[in-house]
Design brief:
With 254 residues, the chain is of the alpha/beta class. It contains nine helices and ten strands. The strands form two sheets. Strands 1-10-9-6-2-3-5 form a seven-stranded parallel sheet. The longest helix has 18 residues. The protein binds 2-amino-2-deoxy-6-O-phosphono-alpha-D-glucopyranose (GLP).
Amino acid sequence: MQIFIFDTPEAASRAAGEYVNAEIRKNPKLVLGLATGSTPLGLYKEMAEACKAGLDYSQVRSFNLDEYYGLQPDHPQSYRRFMNENLFDHLNIDKANTRVPDGTAADPAAFCAEYEAAMKAAGGVDIQVLGIGSDGHIGFNEPGSSLVSRTRVVALTPQTISDNARFFEKADDVPRKAISMGVGTIMEAKTCLMLCFGANKATAVQGMIEGGITQFNPASILQMHPDTRVYLDEAAASKLTLKDYYKWAGSCGL
Ligand code: GLP
């Protein structure tokens, strides 16, 4: 794991954006794994600005981590709609090459198998963008998820439902289930790019980086990933025992 600590979420998003955009310059056919939530919005702004300034996204392909189960793609809170509005509509990407799990799939197991096969056929995910839930979840892999799980239907925890209720009229409107890439699926990405901002993530972040590897904090498996880049703001980094060392290593160019 490489840990990068910034004064603000804006500075962290800029650095993450520079990384992603540079990788797309090197490989215009890059396969991105994408995440929703408020955290990656700054990164998506950086990508949109680079595209406006001439970076070509027309051959980039993408696979999103997850989608609420039961929401139509045009539902205001669906992750398909979120991705269109916050990223895809601002890139010259071919929407046919952007995949978000289908929350309306009549046969979810068949859908999940096809989604995994499509990722493989694309050559696998090159860069997987990730955020973390306040309980350590990645995608919608809640605590207790198998660390080798694959794309499947999952049940959201009451904590996640309450965290995400702010986007819905009331907590009762938040779907109870989702389709999510599994932890094992995420681990196959060549690079994982994890963004975590804010004090409410500090405990999960500490567990992810410095705790034991455990399904009680699914993000902790990233300690076993060969190329994970973690972008934190000061608040999310505030509970790290070795925070000063990570900053020192950063100042040494590592
Ligand atoms: C949802 C998503 C996760 C995301 C998390 C954090 O649960 N499924 O992928 O990381 O929200 O959201 P936020 O970035 O708004 O804190």
